Design the sequence.
């Protein structure tokens, strides 16, 4: 397996982002700010020769990927791999509902009434478990279900035989997915996980076989 750099980009701003609603597997279109931001992200990455590219199959991520591709001539020779493995966490009953109110319902019974409180006292996996517990249908993904899905996506990347030492690879995904990756693959306390990655932001990971290490967050 190769040693390479994985660039993780959060999709551009959507209307649900503006309205402070959980999107999960739901979708809302990119705002004009989101479109412009994705173009700017593409320009920041335009001189990087990517060997492979991956993307969530949700519309907001695919649109962001397309706008990034338009700014980078090296993408002419590759086709992005689009997969549901890279989707955002599924929020079940809470899809499309107010983010702050949802995390209050999930965390308050445990003495953590905000998302930041949950992260301060626990971690991202606990946040997922709390949400599934609070979901009256129990359809939201808990940590085990979430990582079973996402790990299949990570395996797609790390086992790609075309990726060689020193290559660069792009992944366009989602806010809580990036937070989850940073939570799992960084040193505790290295990054402030109470700060969500900005739309269009770039996070970088060093990949060595199946060993992943976060090197930059939310740039």
Sequence:
């Amino acid at each position: 397996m190769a040693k390479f750099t994985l660039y993780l980009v959060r999709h551009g701003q959507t209307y649900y982002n503006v309205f402070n609603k959980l999107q999960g597997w739901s979708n809302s279109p990119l705002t004009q700010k989101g479109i412009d931001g994705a173009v700017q992200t593409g320009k920041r990455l335009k001189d990087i020769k990517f060997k492979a590219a991956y993307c969530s199959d949700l519309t907001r991520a695919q649109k962001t990927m397309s706008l990034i591709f338009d700014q980078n001539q090296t993408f002419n020779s590759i086709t992005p791999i689009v997969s549901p493995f890279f989707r955002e966490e599924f929020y079940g009953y809470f899809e499309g509902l107010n983010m702050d109110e949802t995390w209050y319902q999930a965390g308050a019974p445990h003495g953590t009434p905000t998302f930041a409180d949950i992260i301060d006292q626990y971690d991202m996996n606990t946040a997922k478990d709390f949400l599934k517990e609070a979901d009256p249908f129990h359809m939201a993904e808990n940590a085990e279900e979430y990582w079973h899905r996402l790990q299949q996506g990570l395996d797609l990347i790390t086992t790609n035989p075309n990726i060689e030492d020193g290559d660069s690879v792009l992944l366009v995904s989602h806010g809580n997915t990036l937070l989850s990756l940073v939570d799992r693959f960084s040193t505790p306390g290295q990054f402030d996980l109470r700060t969500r990655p900005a739309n269009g932001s770039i996070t970088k990971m060093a990949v060595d076989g199946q060993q992943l290490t976060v090197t930059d967050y939310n740039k």
